[in-house]
Amino acid sequence: MASTVFERNIPSPAVIEAALAGAKHVPFWLDDVGPAPVGAPLTGRHAADLVVVGAGYCGLWTALLAKQEDPARRVVVLESHTVGWAASGRNGGFVEASLTHGHDNGESRFPEEIDQLNALGLANLNEIEQAVKDLGLDCEFERTGSIGVAVEAYQVAELKAAADGGDTVFLDQDQVRAELNSPTYLAGLWSKQETALVHPAKLARELARVCRELGVEIFEHSGATSLVPGKGGGDVVVHTDRGRVTAAKVALATNVFPSLLKRNRLFTVPVYDYVLMTEPLTPEQLESIGWSNRQGFSDLANQFHYYRLSADNRILWGGYDALYHFGRGVKNEYEDSPETFRKLASHFLTTFPQLEGIKFSHRWAGAIDTSTRFCAFFGTAHGGRVGYATGFTGLGVAATHFAAKVMLDQLAGRDTERTRLKMVRSKPLPFPPEPFASVGIQATRWSLDRADHNGGKRNLLLKTLDAVGLGFDS
Ligand SMILES: Cc1cc2nc3c(=O)[nH]c(=O)nc-3n(C[C@H](O)[C@H](O)[C@H](O)COP(=O)(O)OP(=O)(O)OC[C@H]3O[C@@H](n4cnc5c(N)ncnc54)[C@H](O)[C@@H]3O)c2cc1C
What we know:
Radius of gyration: 22 Å
Number of strands: 19
Number of helices: 16
Bound molecules: flavin-adenine dinucleotide
C-alpha cells in the first residue's frame, strides 16, 4: 500500500512531544470565554407554550426564532448541563452553507432537489450572517470562504472538476501556496461564498443572551428525563428530576445524547472528533505561512484535517481520526486519546515544517451525532406536539439554524418549502444494534483508511455501502 504524505514526512517523536507538552485538556473556546453565571435549575410545576430540550445552537435558535415569531409565547429551555458546553461550544467553528454534508453526499441522496438544497443552504448562511449583524452577536464571525487542498496527486483532478468559474476557483500549486504556504499542497479549490468562521462558544453564549433578552427562560442543570402526554391528551409534560413543564409543543434539540424518543436512538451513533489549538502565532510565524485571507482549510482524503485561524491568530487543527466506542456511549473518558493527539500534532508539523517549535495550548474532543446519511433528519411524535432534529454528523453549526426553522414549521403544522423537502420528509436507515454496529463502523473506517492509501480507490465494502446509500465520501 502506498504511504500518504503524512507518513512520508514524519517529524521526530521528540519534536511532537515538545509541541504537545503543556497542552491543557479542555476545549479552547470554552476556556477562552470562561464560566458564565448559572441560573437556578427548574423546580416545581410550570406551564409553557413551547419547551425546548437542549441549549446548544439547535435549541437556542429554536427558542430565539419562536420568540421572534410570537413574542407573547412562553418559551422554556431545559438544559442538562450548561449553555453550549457540548458540541456547540467545542467545534471547529466552520459555518458551512451545505445542509447535506457537502454537495456530493447531498447529490447522491437527494439528486432531484440538490440544487434547491444548495440554494436553501446558502440562504441559511446569509440569514445567520444577517442575524449576527441585526442582533449584535459578538462571536468573531468572519465570512472568509474556505479552501480544500490536494495533498496527493490523485486529488488534483477532483478539485479541477469542481471549479465552477464563478465563486469556486481552482488554484494551482503556486496559487494555493500563495494563500497558505505548505510544502504538502499540490492544488486547491477556493470556495469564496460558502463558509464563514465563528468563535463557537461565543456564538452559543450570545444566542443565549438574546434568548433571555427576548424573555426565553433557560434552566440549566435541568435534564429532561421523560415526555408524557398531559391529562386530556392536549399537552405534553416534560419531567426533570426536580420539576416539570406542561407545554403545548416540545422541540427536542438533544443532538448526540440519548433521545427522549426511544425509537430515535438507533438512528445515530456518537463518533469522537479530536482537536488541537496552538498558542497565538508571532508575526514572524504568521509571515512564514502567509494566510492573509484567513480562509478555513481542509484536505481531501476520507480521513481529513480541518484548520483555521482564531481571532488572535492561533491555529485550530482537527479531524482525521474519528473514533467510535462499542456500546454507543457518550463518556468523558472518550475525550482523551493520546495517540490521536500525537498523530494530529505530527500531521500539523508535516504541513507546516516552518512552525517547528510552536506549542499547542489546548487539546480536546467532542462527540458527533453521526447518521447513516451523514446529514440531519427531522420529524414529529406525540401527535405532532413533539418535534426533533438530529444527525448533523459533524456539520451542524449552520445547519442547526435551518433545522430550528424546520422544527417550528412542523410544530405549527405549516406547509412550507422546507417541510416539503424529501430531505425533511425522509429518514435515514438506522444503525444495527451492537455488536454489528461496532463491527460495521470499524470495517468502514479501515476501508476508508485503505482507500486513502490507495489513490482514493474504494474497496468492495465501500462500493457496497455506496450502492445501498450508506457510503461516505468527504
Ligand atoms: C470537535 C467537533 C468539531 C466540530 N466542528 C464543526 C465545524 O467546524 N462546523 C460544523 O458545522 N459543525 C461542527 N461540528 C458539529 C457541530 O458542533 C454540531 O453539529 C452542532 O453544535 C450541534 O448543535 P446541537 O445544538 O444540535 O447540539 P449540542 O451542542 O450537542 O447541544 C445539545 C444539548 O442538549 C443537551 N441535552 C441532551 N439531552 C438532554 C436532556 N435530556 N435534557 C436537557 N438537555 C439535554 C446537551 O447537554 C447539550 O447541551 C463539530 C463537532 C465536534 C464535536
